[in-house]
């Protein structure tokens, strides 16, 4: 019997710059949690492995290239309800190119304490706490 997952896998990236700041972006109008800040990323497509989905999403959203071999799994968050979603977070300190918000979204580099003061999507806030935990 074929087993089909009934939940949506989503991947996200905490990209660090040389000063230890994290890149975050704002969800655009018309999206669920519009105006909230999030880690860039998106849904894993059928047949994709998570880290390659993340390479694709980051290129589509921010016009930068990341090396899939330099992505470190960091944590995950989950939401159940009308749709069940699991959001997997990776970290990286490497990217090529200058970020641009290709969807017209605001984005920026934030220290972890600056990031805490942003209005964040709920799962992204959970993930921010996991990054902090991983650094202790
Ligand atoms: N990053 C993030 N995504 C969330 C949260 N809660 C939640 O339901 N989601 C959903 O998880 C999915 C994230 O994938 P995405 O970034 O590619 O979403 P999207 O809005 O571009 O796509 P969509 O409009 O097709 O849903 C979206 O469907 C989003 O609504 C959350 O707390 N953080």
UniProtKB/TrEMBL annotation:
EC number: 3.6.1.55
Catalyses which reaction(s): 8-oxo-dGTP + H2O = 8-oxo-dGMP + diphosphate + H(+); 8-oxo-GTP + H2O = 8-oxo-GMP + diphosphate + H(+)
Domain Nudix hydrolase as annotated: residue spans: 6-132
A molecular function (GO) term: 8-oxo-GDP phosphatase activity
GO biological process, one term: DNA repair
Gene3D superfamilies hit by this protein: Nucleoside Triphosphate Pyrophosphohydrolase
Family label: Belongs to the Nudix hydrolase family.
Cofactor: Mg(2+)
Protein name: 8-oxo-dGTP diphosphatase
Keywords of the record: DNA damage, DNA repair, DNA replication, Hydrolase, Magnesium, Metal-binding, Mutator protein
Xref: SUPFAM superfamilies: Nudix (SSF55811)
Root EC class: hydrolase
